[in-house]
Amino acid sequence: MRYVIMDPIGTYASRIMEFLGGLELEAIGVFTSQRNVHAWEARWSRELGHLTSDVYLATEHDDLEELAARVEHDWPGGFAGIIPWDEMSILRGAQLGELLELGWNPVRVIERCRDKHVMKAWLRRTGKVRINASRVVRNAEEALGFQAELGRWPIVVKPSADAGAHFVSFAGNPGELLRGCQQVRENGRGDVLLEEYIAGDEFAVNGIVDKDGDLLVTDVWYYDKRASHGIANLYYQSIKVGSSEEIFWLLARYAAAVVEALELRRSPLHMEVKVDDDGPCLIELGARFAGGDQPVLASKLHGRSLFELAACHYLADLPVTAMDVHYERYDSLEARIISGIQTVEIPRVQAVLGLEEVQELPSFDSIGVLRRPGMPAPQTRDLDTKAYEVYLVHPDPRQVARDAHEVRRLLRYV
User: Fold this and answer.
1) If DSSP states are collapsed to H, E and C, what string results for the chain?
2) What is the mean pLDDT of the segment spanning 185-197?
């Protein structure tokens, strides 16, 4: 039996495909861009080609209807399902899934999850969960009018259909507001979206949604964000929240209500939520895994692969239960993700200092992002330009805190 997977490149896709390959399921890969095809040819075809029956490039066809007809013609035996695991291809994956009648989420549901404005407008109409004020604006008059109606600063400016904190700014006056809008118009995906700023602590809530829309929250992280070199809200570190903490279940209940209102099912979920004196409030949501290797680390904490769990739900109508994860093991370990902030751009890294010392720290687990010699180290502005990402895991929270300090002291580029 075969299944369809969108853009089968990267660590996340490889973990899913290796698991399904062990079950004797082969992949039909559908690429959404020539760039992703190049990545496949350069590396991933060597690692995943033996798990793949065929690949297609969507842009070589006039439309998705033509692509679907070609795939059905080439593989008349049908498919177990579709896996649109990546944020940038999830909508086309849902569209292709409908054309192939694979029974995943309807396009209308994924459209709600993919576009921030559509999602929050829908949730606001349902009245089931707290949602901050937001509006798509098309000119300066509309932007200034939104702020005037709200009556306070700052205003969050962001693209309606982007990810990774790209081109997100926090405007504290009319000039900053209009500059932020212009930046999104010129560079971002989707429309210019303005949102009411919510103060308080920010958290990531990750989980798996089953066939009935029930959410199993697998891991929660506190986002410690800080200002640096004139840029607000940069990722500094993410600290695991245990399931024994009250905030874990407050966020889990809120997230479950959001999922129910969106009518999402059979999907991983990544949600960003702020909590102030009025309770939780949704900031972002994706029908996908979290970035930054959070699911890799969470799988280690549970001792169970969340990629394997997600693969099962992508392809079958299954319920989720607490037995799918291991909360006791998860709670027994402290974990942090340390995000490096590069204050000054280095056009070409000559050396990475302190790497061996960091790898010898008692809580060191692994490294995600690292700029190797010969690579540029851009000034940090968003998730894609972080200097490095180091994962720390240890039973003793004090050891993790000490090692987090040491990572920042030791690791740097010249």
Assistant:
1) CEEEEECCCHHHHHHHHHHHHHCCCEEEEEECCHHHHHHHHHHHHHHHHHHEEEEEEHHHCCCHHHHHHHHHHHCCCCCCCEECCCCCCHHHHHHHHHHCCCCCCCHHHHHHHHCHHHHHHHHHHHCCCCCCCEEEECCHHHHHHHHHHHCCCCEEEEECCCCCCCCCEEECCHHHHHHHHHHHHHHCCCCEEEEECCCCEEEEEEEEECCCCCEEEEEEEEEEEEEECCEEEEEEEEEEECCCCHHHHHHHHHHHHHHHHHCCCCEEEEEEEEEECCEEEEEEEECCCCCCCHHHHHHHHHCCCHHHHHHHHHHCCCCCCHHHCCHHHHHHCEEEEEECCCCCCECCCCCEECHHHHHCCCCEEEEEEECCCCCCECCCCCHHHCCEEEEEEECCHHHHHHHHHHHHHHCEEC
2) 90
What digits encode the pLDDT tens for the residues 352-386?
A: 999 999 999 999 999 999 999 999 999 999 989 99
Summarize the confidence of residues 301-316 as an average pLDDT: 99
Q: How many C-beta atoms surround the C-beta of residue 371 within 10 A?
A: 19
pLDDT score, position 327: 99
Does this model's pTM top 0.70? yes
Q: Which of 219, 284, 287 is nearest to 83 (CA)?
A: 287
Q: Give me the pLDDT at residue 147, please.
A: 98
Mean of per-residue pLDDT scores for the chain:
97
Q: b vs e for 214-232, b when ≥16 Cβ sit within 10 Å of the residue's Cβ?
A: bbbbbbbbbbbeeeeeebe
Q: What are the tens digits of pLDDT across the range 79-96? A: 999 999 999 999 999 999
Q: Does domain 2-104 have CATH number 3.40.50.20?
A: yes
Which residue from 13, 9, 4 is spatially nearest to 307, judged by alpha carbons?
13
pLDDT band at 213 (very low <50, low <70, confident <90, very high): very high
The CATH code belonging to domain 333-414 is 3.90.1170
The pLDDT score that the predictor gives to residue 163 is: 67
pLDDT for the residue 161: 81
Q: For domain 133-196, which architecture applies?
A: 2-Layer Sandwich (3.30)
- CATH number 3.30.470.20 is the correct assignment for the domain at 106-124+198-332: yes
Interatomic CA distance for residues 31 and 393, integer angstroms: 35
Using N-to-C axis directions, what is the helix angle for 90-99 and 107-114, rounded to 10°? 180
